[in-house]
TrEMBL record:
Protein name: Tyrosine-protein kinase
Residues in Protein kinase domain copies: 233-494
This protein's encoding gene: SRMS
Pfam families listed in its UniProt record: PK_Tyr_Ser-Thr (PF07714), SH2 (PF00017), SH3_9 (PF14604)
Keywords: ATP-binding, Cytoplasm, Kinase, Nucleotide-binding, Phosphoprotein, SH2 domain, SH3 domain, Transferase, Tyrosine-protein kinase
Catalytic reaction annotation: L-tyrosyl-[protein] + ATP = O-phospho-L-tyrosyl-[protein] + ADP + H(+)
Domain SH2 intervals: 123-215
Subcellular location: Cytoplasm
Domain SH3: 54-115
Organism: Rhinolophus ferrumequinum (Greater horseshoe bat)
UniProt cross-references to InterPro entries, sorted A to Z: Kinase-like_dom_sf (IPR011009), Non-receptor_tyrosine_kinases (IPR050198), Prot_kinase_dom (IPR000719), Protein_kinase_ATP_BS (IPR017441), Ser-Thr/Tyr_kinase_cat_dom (IPR001245), SH2 (IPR000980), SH2_dom_sf (IPR036860), SH3-like_dom_sf (IPR036028)
Protein task: Non-receptor tyrosine-protein kinase which phosphorylates DOK1 on tyrosine residues. Also phosphorylates KHDRBS1/SAM68 and VIM on tyrosine residues. Phosphorylation of KHDRBS1 is EGF-dependent. Phosphorylates OTUB1, promoting deubiquitination of RPTOR.
Source superkingdom: Eukaryota
Amino acid sequence: MEPFLRKRLSFLSFFWDKIWPAGTPDDSVSGFPDSDTNAELEAPAAEPCTPPAVPGQLFRALYDFTARCTDELSVTRGDRLYALKEEGDYIFARRLSGQPSMGLVPIAYVARATSDTLSDQPWYFSGISRTQAQQLLLSPANAPGAFLVRPSESSLGDYSLSVRAQAKVRHYRISMAADGGFYLQKGRLFPNLEELLTYYKANWKLIRNPLLQPCVHQQPPEWDEWERPRSEFTLRRKLGEGYFGEVWEGLWLGSVPVAVKVIKSDDMKLRDLAKEIQTLKSLRHERLIRLHAVCSAGEPVYIVTELMCKGSLQAFLGSPEGRALSPPTLLDFACQVAEGMSYLEERHIVHRDLAARNVLVGDDLACKVADFGLARLLKDNVYSPSSGSKIPVKWTAPEAANYRIYSQKSDVWSFGVLLYEVFTYGQCPYEGMSNHETLQQIAKGYRLPRPAACPAEVYVLMLACWKGSPEERPAFTVLQEKLGTIHRCLHATLT
């Protein structure tokens, strides 16, 4: 509030000096961060003071502005403008960044540029947040005394000085005065940022932190059309938690419903995640869950997909609505999953964790396979037989559970167990048996019994999926074809 009142009502300076004597510290020392915190000393955002335009002066856009007529110029926050003349509450300017064009821009939407070469300064970092500044300064490439200047996040037109102090980063507000100068502490005004930094390099004890060298620039991760900042996503309701992390219902840009998988870094091999995400981006099929975006720079990693309103197939089958479904509808679910798995089979993608919990259901009873390939990213001590309950033994083929040999044929075994789940309305397979007992019984030749709702022809396919030798199990293309034939015959019989 103080900077705003001093800027806008400067003729009351005597009164303001009575309330806020110049040089009086806001905390223990003016311009200092608290010694026990990393809090940025930034006042609430105040309306920037924009001086009258002078022909030939450089400005920058503080806000997005969309032209409402042909005389006006649309600008985006951060655009650089060259003022040609002032016209009332507007400046007539030429845009220097982006596509060159001219027009009127409201003067309230711009601020005078402090330096034509600011972006060339090694210590100036535009477009980074407080968190990103901390990550950069605390990286191995930088030592205590490294510093940078960045635009303030909470007050447009002001800046922040971030300095590494041993194992922490301190942040200081650099405010703009009404005449366009800059100050870090009241009473010490500088015409530009460069002179301000020169002064505090020589008088670093005033801020208790030496300014030794500009922060080392690091090559940012390569972003593509899939990569989005986490700030675009709002997590609203937790839907569940599994081997791969938490799943949340969320909103993208405040309006688009999405599902957000928040990856647990403790359990995942994040160094391999980028390659797996590239695979996810390349897969497109109506029976696979659709990828919307990823947030893979830093942690936690977000994998953002379409939201399926009825949740997992396992949970849906056990609900009152699911339990009321007829065998033909259950068979239709099986056909849809087989179609999605056939697509993965054609592209030599091994799912590794096919189960009803990893199939999602939409409002129109459309089924989509999810989480394909993510099991590859689980750390060995998490996804292994020795870790007990972590590996889904009851859905896993013997060669995969015992020897970690995964293939499309091990996915076929899991599909047979999924068929059992479907026709038992979500019942857990091998109920009453431990993982160890399950593996023992399977090795002795035991197979799950035929569910009451399961057609005999489908049970024959289940048993084929559970052949001891992987080579004897059918391909997904064969399963899709045979299940489709059974479904058509069953539907014709009932109609």
